[in-house]
Amino acid sequence: MFVVNDMPDRIDDRIVAELQDVCVSTLGHMRDHGFALGLVPNKRPVKFVGTAVTVRIPHLDSTAVHLAVDMLRPGDVLVVDQSGDVQRSCFGGLVSFTAKSRGAAGAVLDGSINDYDETLAYDFPVFSRGFSPLTTRIGGLEGAINVPVTVGGATVHPGDVVFADSDGVAFLKPADAVGLGARLREKEDAEGPARESITVGGSIAEFSGAAKYRP
Ligand SMILES: O=C([O-])CC(=O)C(=O)O
Ligand SMILES: [Mg+2]
């Protein structure tokens, strides 16, 4: 059976702008959940912030991916759960070309990619488990679009904020992302004075608070 739910509301442009120039790992200093672990980008440096459009497919059948890619809007990020089969690729040159043509910001797959060089030629950023010549097929078995999915151990709902850079991918509820960019910026800016101090012999352990645990 195929489920095709409505496309989610697009995240606010202000969230995109605020998160565009801060690091995902700065959030990793503050939060322990909602990160897609074990995924790597097809290129670095990489940076994108967008609206999650989710797809769940069974191991072999990427029919729902092809249906979903056609539906992508500017700024969307395709998020694909392959039901645990991370070795097959549902995402190659033609799928990336279509996503790029629709204006999508990127893709995050709990599976592999193929046509690697082609994805690079389109300059389309994709996080995945790696590369594979073994692909999915258009089998018409089943699949679901815009349902909750699991990717890299994180639960993702359609409409979540996808916040990605060279360190990896985080997923956020839009309400949790409001004002987050400013908090991350503040934390990153605090490292400026620390660097100046370290240059003249200052201590990272004093800056971080580790020094108080020195025996
Ligand atoms: O069609 C697929 O599922 C994967 C692929 O090779 C492409 O996107 O070009
Ligand atoms: Mg291909």
From TrEMBL:
User: How is the quaternary structure described?
Assistant: Homotrimer.
Q: Which reaction does it catalyse?
A: 4-hydroxy-4-methyl-2-oxoglutarate = 2 pyruvate; oxaloacetate + H(+) = pyruvate + CO2
Superkingdom in the source lineage: Bacteria
Pfam families given in the database record: RraA-like
Q: Which cofactor does it need?
A: a divalent metal cation
Q: Quote the function comment for this protein.
A: Catalyzes the aldol cleavage of 4-hydroxy-4-methyl-2-oxoglutarate (HMG) into 2 molecules of pyruvate. Also contains a secondary oxaloacetate (OAA) decarboxylase activity due to the common pyruvate enolate transition state formed following C-C bond cleavage in the retro-aldol and decarboxylation reactions.
Tell me the protein's name. Answer: Putative 4-hydroxy-4-methyl-2-oxoglutarate aldolase
Family in the record: Belongs to the class II aldolase/RraA-like family.
Source organism phylogeny: Bacteria, Bacillati, Actinomycetota, Actinomycetes, Pseudonocardiales
EC assignment: the record states: 4.1.1.112, 4.1.3.17
> What species is this protein from?
Prauserella oleivorans
Report the enzyme's class at the first EC level. lyase
InterPro entries, per this entry? RraA/RraA-like, RraA/RraA-like_sf
